[in-house]
Amino acid sequence: MLRAGIVGLPNVGKSTLFNAITRTRKAEAANYPFCTIDPNVGIVTVPDTRLAVLQGIAKTSVVIPAAVEFVDIAGLVKGASQGEGLGNKFLTHVREVDAIVQVVRCFEDDDVHHVSGTVDPVRDIEVINTELMLSDLESVRKRRERVGKDAKRGDKAAAAEDAALEKIETALDAGKPALTVTLTEDERAFTRAMFLLSDKPTIFACNVAEADMATAETNPYVVKVGEYVRTHLACEAVVISAQIESDLVDLPPDEAQAYLESLGVKESGMGALIRATYHLLGLQTYFTAGEKEVRAWTIHVGDTAPKAAGVIHSDFERGFIKAETVAYDDLVTCGSVAAARDKGLYRMEGKEYVVADGDVLLFKFNV
Length: 367
Fold this sequence. Notes:
Layout: E1 3-7, H1 14-22, E2 40-45, H2 50-58, E3 63-64, E4 67-72, H3 87-95, E5 99-105, H4 121-152, H5 156-173, H6 185-192, E6 202-207, H7 220-233, E7 236-240, H8 242-248, H9 253-262, H10 269-280, E8 283-289, E9 294-300, H11 305-312, H12 314-318, E10 320-326, H13 328-334, H14 337-342, E11 347-349, E12 360-365
Parallel strand pairs: 1-4, 1-5, 3-9, 5-6, 6-7
Antiparallel strand pairs: 2-4, 8-9, 10-11, 10-12
Helix pairs in contact: 1-8, 4-5, 5-6
């Protein structure tokens, strides 16, 4: 299962958000820096309305959604790359995740201490990104020292790696994260092996006050963050209110919806954040549906049918014969697999078939 790390400066709402996402009280949420020391981990289901529809068609009582693992990581401060705060411990935890959800404070509250004294979300983003880039810069320079010696001796692979790392170093020197550097697939293979911190897919979660959620699109902090991350980081931002999400944790669905409506909010920001993080990792969903269960399976965009089968069990991939498949929309329109088959919409696909998001699949294999 892929992992998304929740990061940010101290007291921006990370732990409150983590508790809300995972519907737990695992992470301590307090008004002082570093109330999170060791990372908390929670498994989060990916919201998908298609599951309930498939459940009705398959006539089953068992539904298993897709999931993403979220990790609540201790707050970072300026100088972390030189050991300030939790320093290297924090950076190690970031290195272990596949994607980053960077929580940014977009609310004023005199009772909640800000580590820098004032609220400025773009400054906060730059503090965190600078520390990630400084750590990467040190790693890249050390690596170039090693491969540079081999490159000078005529090692072509070392020369190619050094050229790729030079592009990264130039960007980092200019204050641009590794994620923004355009590389060939071969060059990307070199840098991927280094697990660079600023090369991780990132989404920014603008944490607004409870009263501001309904009008968040006009919140000047939110507008500022959106413009900045699109222009400088080629990333996207979503709006959440950690306080609202925290209030929703213990409410049943009908009361939760009524509470949101009382605030002038149609839905919580958590669904959008979880879906955005899921897609940020380049993932998509296919389904299996039968009387036993309806289940969402996570694969990478572009995966072939055998790869998709392997997510269920390695034997399915190894002994793959064919995949019986129907598109979700076609199945819903027809109302049953039998009707879809009668209309020629239920297909047999082979090893080269690239699975589409929403495909409903049944695999045939022989081991």
